[in-house]
Amino acid sequence: MKKYLVILLFLPAILSYAQEEKDPSVQFAETITAHDLRAHLMFLSDDLMEGRNTGERGQHMAGLYIETQFRRLGLTGPETTDYYHQQFKMARSEVKSMEIGFGKKDFSYKKDFFSFGAHGLPARLSGDFVFGGYGIVSEDYNNLEGLDIQDKIAVVFAGSPKEESDNMRKRISGWFGRAKNFQAAGAKAMMMILPKDAYSRMVPYASRSSLVTISADSKTFPVFYLSEEMGEALLGTAKASSEELKDQLAVSPKPADLDFKKMKFSYKGDVENEEVNSSNVVGYLEGTDKKDEVLIITAHYDHVGMRKGEIYNGADDDGSGTSTVLELAEAFSLAAQNGYRPRRSILFMTVSGEEIGLVGSEFYVEHPIFPLENTIADLNIDMIGRTDPDYEGTADEGNYVYVIGADKLSSDLHAMHEAVNAKYANIKLDYRYNDEKDPNRYYYRSDHYNFAKKNIPIIFYFTGSHADYHKPTDTVEKIEFGKMTKIARLVFHTAWELANQEERPKVDKETGK
Ligand SMILES: [Zn+2]
Predict the structure, then answer these.
(1) Among 9, 119, 166, 392, whose CB has the most other CB atoms within 10 angstroms?
(2) Domain ranges of the chain
(3) What separation in Å is there between the alpha carbon of 443 and the centre of ligand 1?
(4) What's the gap in Å between 402 CA and the centre of ligand 1?
(5) CATH of region 12-76+286-500
(6) Distance from the CA of 276 to the center of ligand 1, in angstroms?
(7) Considering only CA atoms, which of 334, 348, 341, 349 is closest in space to residue 499?
(8) Tens digits of residue pLDDT in 448-507
(9) How far is Cα 485 from Cα 470, in angstroms, rounded to an integer?
(10) What is the pTM for the complete model shown?
């Protein structure tokens, strides 16, 4: 009542005051603070969280914390979920022992071969073998074309032929992708021969106890990674050697027709399987006039757990992203409570299972809570709390972010995010990892990629890798909350624009799938 009077009497004064009034998005961005980010992260990366390994106690505790925050903020759990949790089941396989034999020669687990249980580990395995080249399926180089793969165990090389075209390089999938090629073609299992360095680099990740999602629509597919020696022994049973096979594959994608029939293959697996539960934690803020369209903001709250009694706290990976999602959720909730509810709905989602193969986000896009065609974009935050060696000691140390994927599907999204940065944040946007040819392939390595595969425009925010990456030393006291706050506010302004602008970003490119 009082205000009304004032307006009548001092209208000109009020008008000039209104012009000076802060852009509301700035007002709510400022609720994202280093203090609050630190508070969340101190909890999430505490030793008590036991490294937040998917399916284990620490992950469930972290999930409960996130749920509690979403409840406190007044976000709702979408009706189709089990109160803030999108549950999915996984199977834990523990390899007690495993042996593979070719003829008279026996090979043992980890020394000669390993598997990421994420593919499923069988107690029994038998069948004919087929040589599948590199397992590459692309327009101008296809190893699987015309190959009889049905019910066979495919033997392949990691890597690619020496002369690779740009188009092929783009289409070369990682190891998991090649496994999927063979699975789709009806194979029973895949054995991939690794170069020495790759084998020794990856064997520590072959956890004795690993997880695979189980749902009606996802079948397990065992994949074994063989040492060079074991690979050579296997090819030797068909009187072939990797060197000559690779020479042939450089000339033609058609794999040599190797005869493994005389080989005596034996497989003994003592594997224990147990069912475990995991979840993506979701907090939903309904929009106004465009509420059927949904913006998703993601980070993964799982990490790699404990190894040999050491806790991998995962403060940067991805406690930093998880804390940021919580702060973004708070900023948008406060805005909604103060008359600035976004036009589009926003789903804040911290996923699990990222570290074991982007499992939670894959589960989401296969079982979306909101129709994917109404999902306008995904903003994904994974590791924004540190400075990588390239920026250490430079002028931009405290003011940069790697931006990946913004232009891959939508020119609109890219242009908008640059404009938003220029207007509100002025952070140095570094696109080096957005390059198709970048060997790190970060674009394919975090949860946004599952959305991009479904043609949903994405932006991935990242401050780079560092010496503590996937080490017990990725701890909270090394996090740079000042820079993290700036990046979180940039994500906020971008999300604000996405949620409120008239048109959703148009998908006008194909390069990101
Ligand atoms: Zn991560």
Answers:
(1) 119
(2) 12-76+286-500, 91-273
(3) 12
(4) 14
(5) 3.40.630.10
(6) 21
(7) 341
(8) 999 999 999 999 999 999 999 999 999 999 999 999 999 999 999 999 999 999 999 999
(9) 23
(10) 0.74
